[in-house]
Amino acid sequence: MIKQMTKYNFVIFHEDTPAFLETLKGLGLMDITRSSKPATEDSKNLFDKIHSYSSALKQLKNISKESELPETGIDDAEQVVARCHALSEECKGIKSELLHLNDEYNAALPWGAFSSDAISRIRALGLTPCFVSLPAKKFTDSLREKYALEIISQTSDKVNMVILLPPGERLKGKFKTVDPPKESAESIHNRIAEKEALLDEKSSELEALVPGIAAVSKKIEELKCDAEVLLAKESVIKAAENTIDVFTGFAPMESDSEIALALDSHSEGFYWTAEPAKVEDNPPIALKNNWFTRMFSVLTDMYGRPAYNEFDPTPYISVFFLLFFAMCMGDAGYGILLIIIALLLRKSKGAAKFAPLVLTLGIATFVVGFILHTFFGIDISQVSWIPNGAKKFMITGKIAGYDAQMVLSLAIGVLHICIAMIVKAVYAVKKNGFANSLGTIGWTLLIVGGVIVGAIALGMNLDKSLVKIIVIVLGIVSAIGIFLLNDLHRNPLKNIGSGLWETYNTVTGLLGDVLSYIRLYALGLAGGMLGAAFNQLGGMLLPEGGGFSVMWIFFILIVVFGHVLNLAMCCLGAFVHPLRLNFLEFFKNSGYEGSGKTYKPLINNNK
């Protein structure tokens, strides 16, 4: 449910604002309206510092895995970050030099060992050394007769040679000359080795900074909290020639007494008022859920938190997402695997928070998978090792010629949509009043009432004439609200036209919405059939007479690999499709918009 919020208005002398915001930070309850971007040089510098620390943290985490971090850390975060950036720049420069040296080495390698002094002495004699790279197929013995040359290196497709030309003579023909290397390949190789050693040294110094990850992470959180305070301070409205600050905050109504006590104990120099928040104030949204629904609040946030006058969809999502997930998985064996995965996640520091949700999904999958009589692709309704008493809880057979599981999926879809329409009608009355919600009430009465009457008629075998009378009365009452009273402030003819258009959209939309729930049956069936296929594929390898055989190894490999792959695909489908049914079918029929903003109070750096 949505927590009721209190709106606080503050008027405070400008010089007292920083200390006052520190008081609010200590409370950890007040959400102050913030700027969307830095407004001053101070905020710019603070965000630049956060970026600097974050980039250093990312680099250090890339060097060492979290599980390999030493127990003893480095406490001076500023020193770690400064040294990390300095070493990173040095490593970047060394790598750039290595790229250049490697290019020089590759260019000098074909010309062997030589010295620039030797070339200078040759030039002093009046001879011109020409470094020539010639395709091997163009090299002939006639070149030896024509020029004084020496082959330095040769490959299957290229000949590298030096031709000495007398004074005034030039090469005749198309020769590709290259500039002589500035130094020998061996000399360059030695320089490369020195640079690589220096790079290793700097990398080792970077690795030595890894114990500072914890300190840097803590400092980043502190800087983010400081940024929240700074943005809150910069978002105030200046008054009285910048000597007074006026700003607004929101906090849960349940904390009114605690906040009032803290504000009253604060030093003088400010004035404050409190009043219940209104929809027009656009207060931030804080959700109050129990241990069960709290696990699914992340799904609500994926779509968007409700507006202040909307309803919290988390309780509905928690029940139906859990049911839909289990039906899409549809295998009791996979439920056991999810339970095991949840127990393993509890031991993981980074993923422990997801363990309760995975455990809950695993238990639901096991229960629903048992009811749908599938265990690792095996139809357990046909096996002898399941007691007959337990089989009574399994859904098998057909209803009106259709698989009972498919009919169940559609029935759950109808129930889901009916609940959505009831919720829409209730909150429409709460939001707009009864008289202004007659159109919505009419549709809810027609569809939900029709479903209830149909279910009772089938279940209790009511007299057809009685059912007919109920349906007619229900239709007339609903039609009045849908076509005549959908807007009391509008011309009746416009109401009729609007009602007809809404009738077309509702009828066509509802049909598609209900049929969407077949996916619950289809995904569960597909997962079970794929699991059975892997079982059958592995079983084909087993010897007919039984007994131990090497083929048992291949059987185990195929079955294990197949079910792991199937589990992964089932989990993906069981997450996406139930999410779609809640976000589209339920939210559309309940009128949920999710336009609220998340409640983010100022908190102390140490919290």
Summarize the structure.
The protein folds into three domains: 5-73 and 211-281, no CATH class; 115-180, no CATH class; 314-590, no CATH class.
Describe the structure.
The chain has helices spanning 17-27, 41-63, 77-108, 116-124, 141-146, 185-207, 213-234, 256-265, 291-294, 297-303, 314-329, 332-345, 355-371, 388-391, 404-432, 438-460, 464-484, 492-516, 518-539, 551-590, and strands at 5-13, 31-32, 128-135, 148-154, 158-165, 177-178, 237-239, 244-252, 270-276, 374-375, 378-379, 398-399, 402-403. With 607 residues, it is of the alpha+beta class. The protein folds into 3 domains: 5-73 and 211-281, no CATH class; 115-180, no CATH class; 314-590, no CATH class. A hairpin with a 3-residue loop joins strand 4 (148-154) and strand 5. Helix 15 (404-432) runs antiparallel to helix 16 and helix 15 (404-432) runs antiparallel to helix 18. The two termini are 25 Å apart.
Give the secondary structure arrangement, pairings included.
Blueprint: E1 5-13, H1 17-27, E2 31-32, H2 41-63, H3 77-108, H4 116-124, E3 128-135, H5 141-146, E4 148-154, E5 158-165, E6 177-178, H6 185-207, H7 213-234, E7 237-239, E8 244-252, H8 256-265, E9 270-276, H9 291-294, H10 297-303, H11 314-329, H12 332-345, H13 355-371, E10 374-375, E11 378-379, H14 388-391, E12 398-399, E13 402-403, H15 404-432, H16 438-460, H17 464-484, H18 492-516, H19 518-539, H20 551-590
Antiparallel strand pairs: 1-8, 1-9, 2-8, 3-5, 3-6, 4-5, 7-8, 10-11, 12-13
Helix pairs in contact: 2-3, 2-7, 3-6, 3-7, 11-13, 11-19, 11-20, 12-13, 15-16, 15-18, 15-19, 15-20, 16-17, 19-20
